[in-house]
Amino acid sequence: MSKTIRTRLTARPKLGLDSNAFATPSKACPSVSPGKRRESGYSRLVTSKDLQAVRGTRDFYPDDMRLRSWLFAHFREVARCFAFEEVDAPIVEHEELFTRKAGEEIVDQLYHFELHERRLALRPEMTPSIARMVLARHKQLKYPLRWFAVTQNWRYERMTRGRKREHFQWNMDIWGEESVNAEAELIAAIFSLLQRVGLGDGQVKIRVNSRALLEETLLEGVLKQRPDAFAPLCVIIDKLDKIGKEAVIDQLSDPNGDVGLSQAEAEETVSLLEIKDFEEAAARAPQDSAAIAQLRQLFDLLQGYGVMEHVVFDASIVRGLAYYTGIVFEGFDARGSLRAICGGGRYNRLLETLGGPATPAVGFGFGDVVIAELLQDEGLLPDCVRCIDAMIFPFEEEQRPAAARLATQLRAQGKSVELVMAKKKLRRVFSDAETSGAQELYLLGSDEVGRGVARLRNLQSGEECDVPLPDSLSLD
Amino acid sequence: MSKTIRTRLTARPKLGLDSNAFATPSKACPSVSPGKRRESGYSRLVTSKDLQAVRGTRDFYPDDMRLRSWLFAHFREVARCFAFEEVDAPIVEHEELFTRKAGEEIVDQLYHFELHERRLALRPEMTPSIARMVLARHKQLKYPLRWFAVTQNWRYERMTRGRKREHFQWNMDIWGEESVNAEAELIAAIFSLLQRVGLGDGQVKIRVNSRALLEETLLEGVLKQRPDAFAPLCVIIDKLDKIGKEAVIDQLSDPNGDVGLSQAEAEETVSLLEIKDFEEAAARAPQDSAAIAQLRQLFDLLQGYGVMEHVVFDASIVRGLAYYTGIVFEGFDARGSLRAICGGGRYNRLLETLGGPATPAVGFGFGDVVIAELLQDEGLLPDCVRCIDAMIFPFEEEQRPAAARLATQLRAQGKSVELVMAKKKLRRVFSDAETSGAQELYLLGSDEVGRGVARLRNLQSGEECDVPLPDSLSLD
Question: Which residues of A touch B301 (CB under 8 A)?
Answer without folding.
Answer: 400-401, 404
